[in-house]
Amino acid sequence: MSELTRRFDVDVNILGGGVEQVAGQSVGRLSVDMRGERRREALSYLSEHGLLVEEAGK
Question: Rounded to an integer, what is the distance from CA 40 to the centroid of its chain?
Answer without folding.
Answer: 11
